């Protein structure tokens, strides 16, 4: 325990980095990034945008190139344009539970933001252990490398272990690896080209 505490002090990291990261996120009004994920069902690349209180836009790069999804917390519906160009076509209006707007790994559009990710990791930590593995560099950015391992029998969904890298300056996640109770990797996710608090007009989420 003492060596880990000394490492926390040396890294300038909060004693509870997940709470600190979530607190930082709660002060973010909007963000844009590219999500690149690899899992058991292949690769997904998405241009992703978020604006409070929960507007989400996903522009698919792969595997469904050109598709656009927009979620509104006001209607609690997902608008889907399978072939792009939402400004010129009428989109489908679907529930977030509809399989057409869930990822290959079952993720819901309305539960896809960074805040949801951090809260899920926190839930695992509540019946598990957090380990600080020191500093690391992800895509040229200095980060804190953490692992959260759930106690035996405790999982969040099918996830029993999270390994994540938080940006040293912003505590924003840069990379996340989730594993099941057998230690097999479920998904690897990279958050790239991150822009915090960009100017995202209302029309961007309601074409």
UniProtKB/TrEMBL annotation:
Residue span(s) of domain MucB/RseB N-terminal: 115-203
Keyword Kinase listed: no
Record's keyword annotation contains Protein transport: yes
Gene3D superfamilies listed in its UniProt record: Lipoprotein localisation LolA/LolB/LppX
The entry's keywords: Protein transport, Signal, Transport
Transmembrane intervals: none
Assembly and oligomerization: Monomer.
Name under which the protein is recorded: MucB/RseB N-terminal domain-containing protein
Protein species of origin: Halomonas flagellata
